[in-house]
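Suppose you are handed a protein chain with no further information: no name, no annotation, nothing but its sequence. What can you learn? This example shows the usual starting point.
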Amino acid sequence: MSSLFNRFERARGGLRLGVENLESASRLFEGRRVGLLTTAAATDSRLVSAVDVLAAFCDLRALYGPEHGIRGDLQAGEAAASAVDRRTRLPIHSLYTSDASARGPELDGLDLLVVDLVDVGSRYYTYLSTLSYAMESCAAASMPLVVLDRPNPLGGLAVEGPMLDPAYASFVGRHGVPVRHGLTVAEYALLINARARIGCELHVIPLVGWNRESWYDELPLCWVMPSPNLPTLESALLYAGTCLFEGTNVSEGRGTTRPFELIGAPWLDPQALIPEVAPGLLDGALLRECWFRPVASKHAGQACAGVQIHVTDRSRLRPYRLGVALLDAIRRTHEEFSFTEPAGPGRHPFIDLLAGDSSLRDPGFDLEAYLSRCDADSAGFTVVRDDYLIYPTSGTAR
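A reasonable first move is to predict its three-dimensional structure. Written in structure tokens, the prediction is:
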């Protein structure tokens, strides 16, 4: 117990989360009725809920939950009903519906909106879209919005993947950033507020003691699942690439204990697949043929053959490149492979929304040319994002 206690003490003395720095911006809260957009994963370094921290600090009036609900118990695509928080007795309003539509919060009776969301470093993760809707709502209501910042669990150095084509903007990617963006939630908010001209009165309560080189498990913090299918930091890292399989008839491992680490289908032949992935694209990872039976989601109850991705060097691994390489190899070696159909007339296939354009469905898809374009997109973005970074690599805030 003493070592665990000391770990928390080091967290308080060195790294401090935005939710632990409220006193630095106390004037923003004075005399204001406050709403909080958050999830159960948003805690302080002692695992106290952000809801409880804010309720003790200010006049908290309402709670808002993104996808997976404010308690983090709902599966992807599952709607949350309005409810009442058991501890604070505050109303909980869901900002996500079962048809994957989203909206900004209703702000009646409030003077300030606070956002404390646990992002996972990938454009697909819908909490960033919910944040952007909240910023738009606050801009329309001339209401200030405060972001309580948190670390990017994948660190803040690597940027990877293609930029989003605005024609393919959706809830799994509303604004122009690469798939692996290398930003904290507050840095993302600063960037889109300026570049998308949202016009939100945006305030940031920053991290103290974080640097861009740090992975989450190198910090004196516990991993709290940001959503039901990201149980570990490794699953969050691989999600940046294997989430693409959500747009196909291949299981991305949902319904298993290793989501986004397991890829497979009842018809897949691992021995045909593995040799088709170029060794250079496996830098930092190994593929192992395996079998699994999802208990839910795609291919539920069916025996699936496939691969497990084992991360051997996360600093070298580029998960988006690997995800695309796996997808391309399966397409080339299995006639059973298919992309899922659009959700309705006039809508884009889901793979296009995830990737940010239709390139992955091109019949003449050229993997090398595509990855070169991704590299160029990422390199261009690293120049753009520099104006919005709060934390340089030295860890000293600007």
